[in-house]
Design brief:
Strand order of the largest sheet: 1-2
Order of helices and strands: HEEHH
Radius of gyration: 20 Å
Distance between the termini: 28 Å
Number of strands: 2
Structural class: mainly alpha
Shape: rod-shaped
Largest sheet: 2 strands, antiparallel
């Protein structure tokens, strides 16, 4: 597999991780935010309606948080590795 192909795959993984991370999450019709950022709607619902939505929202957001961070991390590491390999191939092996 060439460094270019590896880099494209890494960028796709990074993009999918960002989409998963910023995808809106809801619980019982209340906006919970996303895996990366919480929304204040769950806290407002708890205060005004006396429900316990905030902890359930945290659980729902937590289900997406690990895959989102994993995809973003693997994508970043793969992209850096592909850039490094591409740079090494362009410069050629060093004569020591």
């Amino acid at each position: 597999m060439s460094a270019r192909t590896f880099g494209i795959i890494a960028l796709v993984l990074l993009a999918v991780g960002l989409v998963v991370g910023f995808m809106p999450v809801s619980y019982q019709g209340v906006n919970c935010g996303s895996a990366f950022a919480a929304s204040g709607d769950a806290l407002v619902s708890d205060l005004t309606e006396g429900t316990r939505v905030a902890s359930s929202c945290d659980d729902a957001r937590g289900l997406l948080r690990l895959p989102a961070y994993a995809l973003v991390g693997v994508g970043l590491v793969g992209f850096v590795a592909a850039s490094f390999v591409k740079g090494r191939r362009q410069n050629g092996p060093s004569a020591a």
